[in-house]
Specification:
Number of helices: 17
Low-confidence stretches: 1-25, 37-51, 705-713, 752-759
Radius of gyration: 31 Å
Strand content: 15-25%
Helix content: 25-40%
Mean pLDDT: 90
Number of strands: 39
Length: about 850
């Protein structure tokens, strides 16, 4: 008999609802765990794939093309060079000789290749006065030797200078830019070549999959126009299109790995690196280098606690800065407090440029450098975090052509055809700018010459350093510029100006980088960017973005608009290929856009190659002497020790018996360290080194500095330096300062009726004879520096204690290298006493 079923009876093939719920829950939980595990495993391997470096020499690892995805790599390396006894590049002032270090100089590089690794471009921005043709040629030689003849060449590698005026000089292969440095300086040249190559090698080894984003924003009060009278020569309807007479926008290119890991960023913004003035004797990367260091410090990862060793690379590159100054308070007559003459930038009667000087925005040059750097930094931070929204997509390409700029054809707006000129510098070149005034009685906006200088040019300079005299057609070609230095004909001991220049552009998706061989003014830069953008759009790049990278590959001074050229301010006088220079560049770059956009660069005529004359350079700078110290003292001993307890904001200083830092440039290393004692009391940790803003390394030649204090030296400038070099190489010495003094006293009269007449040979010969009789012109060989002073030197290390510095016990360490009498270079160390920071 069957059992009676309860009221809760359910058929055997059913389960309870509670049981069903539990089983379903457990099933879903299991699936979720499996799915999560799969996602995590996939993410892990995807993450590794995103951040791992790519073996670009293995063709089997080239990934499948993904829109907006590229192979990208960044690198940075020290290029500081000699920090003592060498002239600084930028102000053309022979008195500005390096005596120490404030900020190290770096080459910062990015490499971008398309996803298939078949087309790559390289961009290096260097904390130097400008790029140099000889440096680029040597860099390319080394890259070809390591990576083969086609991967990195002069065609797809751009080297651009930030335009610091406080770096070492002497790294060129033309004479004019080496007169104040007394020729080439091998240590400078080698440091730039080595450092640029190593930064490119780093970027190459760091190549990984990633993407790029671009954005633009305005820098507030970061620059002013230093030649506003020339800017006003541009058409009114063109000027009315723009809010400012300088460009205020900064463009940023941001690099990140495919997993979002930030790799680097490069910006382009126009401002001169002349915040540090020509009284500065410490090697410095100026406002752009300071901005880079601040950004890189902000992006440090765990374990990165030393300046210059960060994995993130942040670069602030130059743009169309030709007429753009960081001295935002503007110029003033320093002796009277009155305004300078608007067109000539002169003060007093007779008018002189020497006292017309621009200042600001800070209380001194260090403060001004910091302020302008931080104004660029603030915009860069906004861009990096919020405004680099547009992702780059499209091909990686390049175009390059060597161009002979001495005879480049130009078609004018009226249809007529003209050409550029052999290079030449105008009178107002010698007047300098309000960032750094020039020589003697030269002023800005000079459109006529003088009898004295035309005579010196034709009967001294031309006869000594020119193989042939310039014809009248040459001077006519440069009109309305009165040519002071006919550099296109000055070829002894070798060329004084370049003739073959690089015309080059890079393409990264919709971004086009115009690499220009000089300093374009604000309006010249606007015009060429607009021309290139319109041409790119006409070739199908509808959303084309264009930036201009100034001072790239080879230095050809300035490029003004034709209208600005007529003003003959400093920039116009330094537009070396004549009044049609800008149009020549504008038409040449625009003509190459089609080949850039279509990737047809291989079919472009490479043009005439420049000569590599690195082995023909003249170096007049003597080598450093072996070091010595007073009796009873050793090199590295403390001369003046630290004293007392310090607080945040105080300055700590110690002086050592030192050695010449030219014995070892310590590239990638440091001359000093501020060290903090660890809690165990026996170990010390570096907290600041010589590239930190808070430290200064100051070197003095004991004898030379002492003699300078009691000697009244004559004024030194680019003109006196020019004749020092001519004298040293050709045996003709001309003391122009003495000639000016004689003339102003009436002892060297110039006939007023013939002051501007240069065709009367008899007058010129009589003037030359008077110069010779007065002793101003001497046919003798002159050695500007026969040797340096005492071998005893002193090193002062300064540390400005930051306001947030932790309290503790500290000391200052000095790392040097001494040259012995036997010729050996021996390292040594010196230490201050320990001191407290409270």
């Amino acid at each position: 008999m069957a059992k009676k079923k309860s009221s809760s009876y359910e058929p055997d093939h059913f389960i309870s609802s509670t049981s069903l719920f539990c089983k379903m829950f457990l099933g879903f939980l299991g699936l979720a765990i499996l799915a999560t595990a799969a996602v995590l495993v996939g993410y892990y391997f995807g993450f590794l794939d995103a951040v791992k470096k790519v073996d670009i020499n293995d063709p089997d690892v080239a990934p499948e093309p993904v829109p907006g995805e590229y192979l990208i790599g960044v690198g940075r390396y020290d290029v500081t060079g000699p920090v003592a006894q060498v002239n600084m590049m930028g102000y053309a002032n022979p008195s500005q000789t390096a005596s120490g270090l404030h900020q190290r100089l770096y080459s910062r590089t990015f490499i971008v290749c398309n996803n298939g690794n078949t087309s790559c471009v390289v961009f290096a921005t260097v904390d130097s006065g400008m790029a140099s043709q000889v440096v680029k040629l040597e860099v390319i030689k080394r890259l070809k030797a390591k990576y083969g003849p086609t991967r990195y060449t002069e065609r797809n590698v751009v080297i651009s200078g930030t335009h610091s005026h406080s770096g070492p000089a002497g790294f060129f292969q033309t004479m004019l830019v080496e007169v104040t440095s007394l020729g080439a300086i091998k240590q400078s040249t080698d440091s730039f070549i080595d450092g640029i190559v190593k930064s490119i090698e780093q970027a190459h080894s760091n190549l990984r999959l990633g993407n790029m984003h671009i954005g633009t924003d305005e820098v507030v009060e970061g620059n002013i126009n230093r030649s506003p009278s020339a800017y006003l020569k541009n058409p009114l309807n063109e000027r009315e299109r723009y809010r400012y007479n300088t460009e205020h926008n900064m463009t940023m290119l941001k690099f990140q790995a495919t997993n979002g890991d930030p790799i680097g960023m490069f910006t382009w913004y126009p401002v001169h690196c002349t915040s540090m003035n020509f009284s500065n004797e410490l090697i410095s990367s100026d406002n752009k280098g300071r901005a880079s260091a601040l950004f890189e410090k902000m992006m440090r990862k765990s374990g990165e606690n030393k300046a210059g060793n960060e994995s993130f690379v942040g670069a602030f590159a130059s743009a169309n800065l030709g007429d753009v100054s960081p001295r935002t308070k503007g110029p003033i007559c320093v002796d009277t407090g009155k305004s300078c003459d608007f067109e000539k930038s002169t003060c007093n009667i007779p008018p002189r440029v020497k006292n017309c000087v621009a200042f600001g925005p800070g209380v001194d040059m260090f403060d001004s450098t910091d302020i302008i750097a931080k104004r660029q930094l603030e915009t860069a931070k906004i861009l990096f975090h919020n405004k680099t929204k547009e992702q780059l997509q499209g091909p990686v390409s390049w175009v390059h052509q060597y161009v002979d700029m001495t005879k480049q054809p130009v078609q004018l707006d009226d249809g007529s055809n003209v050409t550029t000129c052999k290079p030449g510098m105008g009178y107002s070149f010698a007047a300098g700018t309000t960032d750094g005034a020039g020589a003697f009685n030269f002023v800005q906006s000079m459109t006529t010459g003088t009898l004295l200088w035309d005579t010196v040019r034709d009967d001294i300079i031309v006869k000594v350093v020119c193989s042939e005299a310039p014809p009248q057609e040459y001077y006519d070609c440069h009109h309305p510029k009165p040519v002071l230095l006919p550099t296109g004909y000055m070829d002894r001991p070798y060329a004084w100006h370049p003739t073959i220049v690089d015309v080059q552009m890079l393409r990264l998706g919709q971004l086009i980088i115009i690499a220009v061989p000089g300093e374009f003014t604000t309006m010249a830069g606007r015009r060429i960017k607009e021309s290139v953008q319109k041409e790119a759009q006409a070739h199908g790049v509808a959303n084309a973005k264009v930036v201009l990278a100034g001072l790239s590959n080879v230095y050809t001074h300035y490029i003004t608009t034709p209208e600005e050229y007529t003003a003959q301010r400093y920039e116009g006088a330094s537009t070396i290929y004549g009044p049609h220079t800008f149009q020549a560049y504008q038409q040449k770059y625009t003509s190459l856009v089609g080949d850039l956009v279509t990737g047809n660069h291989e079919s472009v005529d490479p043009g005439p190659s420049p000569s590599d004359t690195i082995n023909e350079q003249i170096e007049l700078l003597p080598p450093p002497k072996p070091d010595s110290a007073p009796d009873g003292k050793s090199i590295g001993d403390v001369m003046n020790d630290v004293n007392g307890t310090f607080r945040a904001g105080d300055e700590v200083s110690v002086t050592f018996y030192g050695a010449n830092p030219r014995h070892n440039m310590k590239l990638g290393s440091s001359y000093l360290a501020v060290q903090q004692q660890l809690s165990n009391g026996s170990q010390w940790q570096d907290v600041f080194v010589d590239t930190d803003w808070e430290t200064r390394f100051i070197w003095n030649d004991a004898t030379t500095k002492a003699s300078d204090d009691v000697t009244i030296a004559k004024d030194k400038n680019v003109i006196t330096a020019l004749f020092d070099v001519i004298s040293a190489t050709a045996g003709v010495h001309f003391d122009y300062e003495e000639a000016m003094m004689l003339h102003e006293r009436g002892d060297l009269p110039l006939p007023e009726s013939l002051r501007d007449v240069i065709s009367d040979v008899r007058v010129r010969r009589r003037l030359v004879n008077n110069l010779h009789l007065s002793g101003v012109l001497r046919w003798e060989k002159y050695q500007p520096i026969s040797s340096f002073g005492s071998a005893e030197s002193h090193v002062t290390i300064v540390w400005n204690v930051p306001v947030d510095q932790p309290s503790g016990t500290y000391r200052i360490s000095y790392y040097g290298d001494t040259l012995t009498l036997s010729g050996q270079v021996v390292p040594f160390q010196g230490y201050s006493s320990s001191f407290r920071v409270q």
